[in-house]
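RETRY 2/3 - previous attempt timed out on the joint model. Re-submitting the same 221-residue input unchanged.
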Amino acid sequence: DIQMTQSPSSLSASVGDRVTITCRASQGIGNDLGWYQQKPGKAPKRLIYDAYTLQTGVPSRFSGRESGTEFTLTISSLQPEDFATYYCLQYNSFPHTFGGGTKVEI
Amino acid sequence: EVQLVESGGGLEQPGGSLRLSCAASGFTFSHSAMTWVRQAPGKGLEWVSLISASGGSAYYAESVKGRFTISRDSSKNTLFLQMNSLRAEDTAIYYCARDIQHSYWGQGTLVTISS
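RETRY 2/3 succeeded.
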């Protein structure tokens, strides 16, 4: 199975900060990676697919990047509504696997 | 508008069975693979199972293989998850999601396994 190592597991940030979250795959997955945002008590919401393609309607302050087996989600200027938990997901091979999550807190 | 509505969760005893449903609308259900993902209380997301658009292929996490069965009824735009031999560690919110990239998610249904 492909392991997705996500870091950090949590971070504290302020409104306006630039935030970067990383997922490392244990083997090559091409660009078959998505990023999801989850707020407390809510279902996850897709932000990015295929490593860097922004979901329609998602603000452009979110971006994704791929470098080999390392994937990053960057929020260029953190907004109050961005405080949430973020997950990566590889869908290159079965079983699909999520990263452990990153909780972004004030 | 894409809508996914899960149902069928509840309290069940260890060793029991439950059948979850996910009613889909707003897209061509028969053209989309569908997925189940779960989240134990206070924990992260765990991929559970995927069924192909045709229903001809199904894939499972090792933790549920042999106990859970995914299926679909495209005439009713509904996805199912039959869960047998339930264990305490199956306690979670179960979400259905559209396609291999999990583009849309339902709101989830809570499954609690306890005696």
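Chain B is about 0% helix and 50% strand. Closing ticket.
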